[in-house]
Design brief:
Layout lengths: L1 E7 L5 H11 L1 E4 L2 E5 L2 H14 L6 E7 L22
Enzyme class: hydrolase
EC number: 3.1.-.-
Subunit structure: Homodimer, forms a heterotetramer with a Cas1 homodimer.
């Protein structure tokens, strides 16, 4: 499946969230990741983020697609993440 992850963590936990997300997905820009991921790794990613989240302060959003071909991405402005991270 193709996943887009967007999160907003308190500054005390944001580096932990970044480290977790980078294990599974490609960094696109601040607090945004995307990539193809297996169902098993998707479950692991969610569990790891759930372990560090404070639900009263932090938020996580996942957008899931069967494959990347069913998604469309338009980009303008300053590019972050570099070409090597774009699928």
């Amino acid at each position: 499946m193709f996943v887009i992850l967007v999160y907003d963590f308190d500054k005390r936990r944001v580096s932990k969230a970044l480290k977790i997300a980078r294990k599974y997905l490609y960094w696109v820009q601040n607090s945004v990741f995307e990539g193809e991921i297996s169902e098993a790794n998707y479950v692991k990613l969610k569990a790891e983020l759930e372990d560090i989240i404070d639900p009263d302060v932090d938020s996580v959003i996942f957008y899931t697609f069967r494959t990347q071909k069913y998604s469309k991405r338009e980009e303008f402005g300053l590019k972050k993440g570099g070409e090597e991270f774009i699928l």
